[in-house]
Amino acid sequence: MISVSNLSLRYGKRTLFEDVNLKFTQGNCYGVIGANGAGKSTFLKILSGEVNQTSGSVAFTPGERMAVLKQNHYEFDENTVIETVMMGHKELYDIMIEKDAIYLKEDFSDKDGERAGELENLFAEKDGWNMESNAATLLSNLGIKEDYHYKQLKELDGNQKVRVLLAQALFGNPDILLLDEPTNDLDIDTIAWLENFLADYQAIVLVVSHDRHFLDAVCTHIVDIDFSKMNIYSGNYTFWYESSQLALKQRSDQNKKLEEKVKELQEFIQRFSANASKSKQATSRKKALDKIDISEIKASSRKYPAILFNNLGREAGDQILQVEGLTKVGNDGEVLFKNVTFMVNKGDKVAVLSQNSLATTAFYNILSGRDKNYTGEFKFGVTISPADIPNDNSDYFEGKDENLVDWLREYSGTDADEQFVRSFLGRMLFSGEEVLKNVKVLSGGEKMRCMFSRMMLQHANFLMFDEPTNHLDLESITALNNGMKDFRGTALFTSRDHALTESVATRIIELTPKGSIDRMMTYDDYINSEDVAKLREEIYK
């Protein structure tokens, strides 16, 4: 168990947390959520001892082992991959190192023999003889092939390092597991494996993630950081979100009787319990129903940007986009995709997939005109006005020395006055003096909101999005998700956000080095299709 008592953290005059009292118990997974800057990652660092709180205390059940997903991708560069994973169980790893060092001594003494015997017993008790094979299995489950297991970590690319460090955190079944954005750079198969692993994990897990589907799949509770306080709610992220929206609605219903509000809340909880995808989530919610108090669920202070794309400048005709034999080879000679051919229908919302993110980015760069080095051809219909959100938006901000108002006015038309631009920025959560902030100092999330503003002002009827949820908080992801769902035009998009892809896509096109797979179906149907699985296995074997 973890017990947090009267915890406070202040930086000068700024208070992140104030008098926080929480208990985290065995067998539960807690999703830690909050607006950007609320202190989600900082709270995990306090629990791990990396950051000291201003006041209060954190206590753990004696003997429990904690593991943390490391964020420093260079810390273990000189170690082999398999060794890096085994280092996740520090006590067992230290026993192995000391034991091996004793056996290598030239002047091996009786005392050394006694110590070696003690270490051998400890090593066996902690399943040390299966240590290496367990680490190898974990690596394979996370997509690191055996060929890499005995290479130095510095020989791996960034995506592979993330998986190795995740394996390190999971290794040896720690009693307490702290994970900060564990799904970053993982593919859909690896995320699915991790979801199943954590859903059945009988330890204490605290996770920070912007992936709503992941939070829904693994969390039994949500820790909401709001108003400098932390509250624990039973259920997953969607349950918390819908209940907070219900609380906001009920707060505005001044004339509704308390009995009616309680009945509405109970019906809401029962509906979610009935639809629970994991048995332990359902049990958690049913227990919550027995003791729920209407006053416990509070309206959130979160603000959601208004991301709306339906101000279309021109109605699209029937000819949308024709792609014929499109092929792209990377600078290193690797075939990113080959002979891709398809026709986009009016109103299609196509999720473009690939095992290689370089392939999808290259695909959008070709369609947007940024990349001319390809073979094959494509043609937009004469009525189509495309707009896109690129994976890398640095070209829109680097070298600019202007404030947000002046930056956005460039895309607003010559007759747009400052008041119009300010009001538009306000809808994107830039208020007051923030609109005069220089674009050079914007955060990644702020730049993305600016890019959405630019796209909205283009009044396009064909939209392209390459990883648009990068750098966004949960509130902006939710707003974008709703805006893409409601968009009346045609769209191509690539996103690692499972919930967004499942709720928006009506068609899936997967780019491969041997052609493309094209299916008129939802994302979940696609990844669960036996027909598609066989086809992908044939392509990638």
UniProtKB/TrEMBL annotation:
Which range is the signal sequence, renumbered to this chain? none
> Gene3D superfamilies of this UniProt entry?
P-loop containing nucleotide triphosphate hydrolases
Note whether Nucleotide-binding occurs among the keywords: yes
State the superkingdom: Bacteria
List, in alphabetical order, the Gene Ontology terms for molecular function in this entry.
ATP binding; ATP hydrolysis activity
Pfam families registered for this protein in UniProt: ABC_tran (PF00005), ABC_tran_Xtn (PF12848)
- Tell me if ATP-binding is a UniProt keyword of this record: yes
UniProt keywords (A-Z) are: ATP-binding, Coiled coil, Nucleotide-binding, Repeat
| Domain ABC transporter: from-to ranges | 2-252, 321-539
Family that this chain belongs to: Belongs to the ABC transporter superfamily. ABCF family. YbiT subfamily.
Name assigned to this protein: Probable ATP-binding protein YbiT
